[in-house]
Amino acid sequence: MINWTDQNLGKDWVKKLFWVGVVITLVIFLFNFTLIGFGVYGDGIGYYTPLRSLIFDGDLQIYDEYEYLSYSKSNFSGVARVDKAIPQYSKYTLGLGLMLSPFFALGHLATLIANTLGLEIEPNGLTWSYELFYCLGSITLGILGLIACYKAARLFFSQTASVLGVAGIWFASPLSFYLTLEVSMSHAVSQFLISVFLYICISTAWVKQRRQQILLGLVLGLGTFVRLQNILFAIVPITMIIWNIINRVIKANQISRNFPWKGMIKFPDITSLVVIGLVTCLMQLPQMFIYQWQYSSFFKIPYLEEGGAEGYESSFNWIKPQISNVLFSGHRGLFFWHPVLLLSIIGLILVYKKLPILVTSFLLAFGLQVYLVSSWWCWWQGSSFGGRMFINCSLIFVWGLAAFWDNLSYKRSRLIGVGVTLFLIGWNVLLILQYESGMIPSEDAVTIGEVLGNQLFAIPHFINHVFNR
Predict the structure, then answer these.
(1) Taking the mean position of all CA atoms in its chain, how far away is CA 451?
(2) Nearest residue to 428 (alpha-carbon basis) of 175, 118, 243, 171
(3) Residues of the chain with pLDDT > 90: what percent?
(4) pLDDT one-digit tens code per residue, 19-28
(5) Are 294 and 287 in contact (CB under 8 A)?
(6) Is 414 exposed, middle or buried (0-12, 13-18, 19+ CB in 10 A)?
(7) DSSP bridge pairs for 316
(8) Cα torsion at 136, 344, 421, 410 (round to 10°)?
(9) Are the beta carbons of 210 and 76 closer than 8 angstroms?
(10) What is the reported pLDDT for 256?
(11) Nearest-CA neighbor of 129 among 139, 117, 121, 141?
(12) pLDDT tens by residue, 161-198
């Protein structure tokens, strides 16, 4: 590794850069919120309405919430907020709403205070003040998740490399879009919970500490309650335990070829995983009972049935996953749309020999996410800016990116790192302009050639799009 000691930024500079990132994020969000007139739309409505219904109506039937929201239109485009059939129940989990319920409560308090000051805002859980605080809560947790990512990187890599890693994922990955423009979706909060989970895994001696095991189960349970795909991150502690067992076997074999197998698997190895798994599974019971109540089945999860409704044989094709498309195609290919993430994976490979356990567990976790998304009937992830379903891997990406910059052997490593990071951020900004202005469709296929060609004209097309509204 290159010695970055003389190149490290001072703590004050790190804090200043952090607050610059916060300000940029909030300015973009507030500008978009003001321009459109609301902050909850798209899939975000499906997460928001059950919370409102539970608090104000005492049930989870969301027809009246959707009907109320269907009368509102974007101040900018004039497009109706609800453009599909109004459902009776939400197909999305209740976890996101529960995570953001304290911020929703702050929105209610702010509404009551505003009314005492003479402002007329209906305290019904559906007016703009509730949405504002709900969305600010998502942003807050998303940024806290990035802090966890930074701390995880600093455990092994230099300050400068860690800052570059966070900056790259904050503003050059799909997280940037879902932390500023579509914050009512689950991705920012999902990123927060999984980042905290992974940070605890790599920073504590959780195998010997029951409290840490319970905490890991709680955090992973909440993460799974927000997005079901997050359960796959259980592979990280499982891999760590298996690796420790393998190391014991290797050491015992070096001492004697006739070593006894007894004692190779220790009691804490099993109990630690059982505790984490038990707590995680127990936290899914509320959602299972909700599905049972709504659809008359514990396992009738909408995601398992919507593929058939769209004309596919099933929702998942485990035999023929679209891995190459998910990673490299112009149709939301993860590494093509966000090349900064390819540098992250390269960084993980570079430090494999020095940190084999962590790299193996991280690569397995990422690989399982790739396989899951690639097997889904909607592998391009629907109306999506890039690979949004991989935002939960943000800590892995930050860690890998920090490893990449820390292993750069050029003399002007900092200058190269800053230059490349700024270029990739610029690439991402131009993609956002393409996406927001309609140069590329929000869901339909787009080729690599179209994306590359549009990058040259994204800014003038976006300006024309704005002023011709």
Answers:
(1) 24
(2) 171
(3) 68
(4) 999 999 999 9
(5) no
(6) buried
(7) 376
(8) 150
(9) no
(10) 61
(11) 121
(12) 999 999 999 999 999 999 999 999 999 999 999 999 99
DSSP assignment of 366-398: HHHHHHHHHHBTTTT-SS-SS-GGGGGGHHHHH
* Cα 167 to Cα 421: distance, rounded to the nearest angstrom: 8
Place 6 in a pLDDT band, splitting at 50, 70 and 90. very low
Query: What is the distance between the alpha carbons of residues 334 and 330, in angstroms, rounded to a whole number?
Result: 9
| Distance in angstroms (rounded) separating the CA atoms of residues 239 and 428 | 33
Q: What is the dihedral of CA 112, 115, 121, 122, to 10 degrees?
A: 60
SS3 assignment for 276-321? HHHHHHHCCHHHHHHHHHHHCCCCCCHHHCHHHHCCCCCCECCCCC
pLDDT of 302 > 80? The answer is no
Contact yes or no for 70/81 (Cβ under 8 A)? yes
Q: For residues 45 and 81, give the distance between their C-alpha atoms in angstroms, rounded to a whole number.
A: 9
Over residues 306-336, the pLDDT tens digits come to 777 667 878 899 999 999 999 999 899 999 9
Q: If we measure between CA atoms, which residue out of 388, 394, 391, 416 comes closest to residue 404?
A: 416
In 10 A of CB 435, how many CB atoms? 23
Q: Which pair of tokens denotes residue 304? A: 């398992």
Q: Is the dihedral of CA 155, 337, 364, 230 positive or negative?
A: positive
3-state secondary structure (DSSP) of residue 14: helix
What type of residue is 199? Y
pLDDT at 261 over 60: no
* Alpha helices for 155-266 (secondary structure H): 159-172, 175-178, 187-203, 210-226, 235-255
List 376's β-bridge partners, or say none.
316
H/E/C letters for each residue in 326-354?
HHHCCCCCHHHHCCHHHHHHHHHHHCCCC
Q: What local confidence, expressed as pLDDT, does residue 84 receive? A: 80
- Rounded to a whole number of angstroms, the distance between the first and last alpha carbons of the chain is 52
Whole-angstrom Cα distance, residue 435 to residue 110?
34
| Domain regions of the chain by residue span | 5-467
pLDDT, tens digit, for every residue of 241-254? Answer: 998 888 777 776 66
Is-contact 436 430, C-beta < 8 A? no
262 closest CA partner among 243, 251, 249: 249
Q: What is the pTM of this model?
A: 0.94
